[in-house]
Write a structure and sequence with these properties.
- The structure is a single chain.
- Helices cover 41% and strands 22% of the residues.
- The protein is α/β, with parallel strands linked by helices and 223 residues long.
- The protein has a 5-stranded parallel beta sheet, sandwiched between helices.
- A hairpin with a 2-residue loop joins β8 (143-146) and β9 (149-152).
- α6 (155-166) packs across α7 (174-182).
- The two termini are 23 Å apart.
Length: 223
């Protein structure tokens, strides 16, 4: 699979760069935002698999950003805060945070938390076996099990399915799917996306309707 994408929304440039450096060392694809508005723009553009979100940022704070994200996306989110008040953590969890890290923190500890959250949240990694939409996904073997029948998928079919599962209810354009799965340097026909999804739906049988076509926009996954 392509590398796991992680958005780091943190207005302190030095800290943001340190976290991005550690992410790269761990094999993740990281990108940074310096304020809340930029974080939302990058979330829309990049469709990250996980978000590291600072509470206190210019333009929009972390709570506001997370509220908007949670309207359509269940992407795993770890919030960063320099404050220790219990109310801050409660507010974060109420708007949909998955974990909280208080500054100052060890980058190594953050990496461990990211890995644990990705696994717990069902983001497709080689360590996961995930149940969704009446299917059991096995990324080790690139297989899905439906009605007790094991179905083998190609690498790209499994990557596309995992991408949908990790961004449930969010409409994904053909361009986003192409960039995420085939890469930005892919110069083939964009119709490869439709062809792959058609094959995938056929293999999924009655579960193929979990991948819905949104006319004029793209596709979305819905249980």
């Amino acid at each position: 699979m392509k590398g796991i994408r992680i958005l780091v929304a943190e207005d302190e440039e030095k800290l943001r760069e340190i976290v991005l450096k550690y992410l790269k060392k761990e094999g993740y694809e990281g990108f940074g935002a310096a304020d809340g508005e930029e974080a939302l723009d990058l979330w829309t553009e990049k469709q990250p698999d996980c978000i590291i979100l600072d509470v206190t940022m210019p333009k929009m704070d972390g709570f506001e950003v997370l509220e908007e994200i949670r309207e359509t996306d269940n992407v795993p989110v770890i919030m960063l805060t320099a404050r220790r008040e219990e109310e801050d953590k409660i507010q974060g969890f109420e708007v949909g945070a998955d974990d909280y890290v208080t500054k100052p923190f060890s980058p190594r500890e953050l990496m461990v938390r990211i890995k644990a959250l990705l696994k717990r949240s069902g983001v497709a990694t080689t360590e996961n076996k995930l149940n969704v939409c009446g299917m059991r996904l096995n990324s080790d073997e690139r297989q899905i099990t439906i009605h007790n029948e094991i179905i083998n998928l190609t690498q790209k079919e499994y990557e596309v399915l995992s991408y949908f599962v990790n961004h449930q209810k969010l409409v994904l354009s053909r361009e986003q799917i192409l960039d995420r799965i085939w890469g930005y340097d892919y110069d083939g026909d964009i119709r490869v996306v439709d062809t792959t999804i058609k094959r995938l739906r056929k293999k999924m049988g009655d579960k193929g309707e979990c991948i819905q076509t949104v006319r004029g926009l793209g596709y979305k996954f819905k249980e």
